[in-house]
Amino acid sequence: MADPVTMMMVAAGASATSSIAAGNQQKKAYESEARTAKIQATQEEAVRSRQLNEALASQNAIMGATGRTPESFASVIGRQITDYNKDIEMVRLGAESTQAQYISAGKTAQTMGYINAASGAASTGMQYSLLKGKIT
């Protein structure tokens, strides 16, 4: 049968390894979420671009059908383009903020894995010290 101290050390090592692995895995999951947020923002930009193009095409069709000049629609078109630019900026800022939150959460999870491992090792060291005092 194995020595209790040896078993305690092996268990502590396994626990520390598990804590570190869990923290690293959580970090990877958060990094994946950050990448997904960026992809979603890119898709949202594409949707907004398509909507703007459709709106501008409609304006051009109306101009052509009514014989109006582009100048008569300039303010409408200008407002649509301004709104589009603001929307895109908000989508990008939102995505950057979301990505930063996920990256920060991932780093925190990884750090907590190391802290848990160190805490477990310290606890085992304390138990070993107490046990060693009783053995000698």
Radius of gyration: 30 Å
Structural class: mainly alpha
Number of helices: 2
SSE series: HH
> What's the main sheet like?
none
| Overall average pLDDT | 88
Helix content: over 70%
Query: Which spans have pLDDT < 50 for at least 5 consecutive residues?
Result: none
Tell how many strands the DSSP assignment holds.
Answer: 0
Instruction: Give the N-terminus to C-terminus distance in angstroms.
Output: 20 Å
Q: How would you describe the shape?
A: rod-shaped
Amount of beta strand: under 5%
Explain what this protein looks like in three dimensions.
By secondary structure, the protein is mainly α. Helices cover 92% and strands 0% of the residues. It is built from 2 helices and no strands. The protein has helices spanning 4-66, 74-135. The two termini are 20 Å apart. The model has no long low-confidence stretch (mean pLDDT 88).
Question: In a few lines, what is going on in this structure?
Answer:
This protein is mostly helical.
Outline the fold blueprint.
Blueprint (H helix, E strand, L loop, with lengths): L3 H63 L7 H62 L1
Keywords:
single chain, 136 residues, mainly alpha, 2 helices, 0% strand
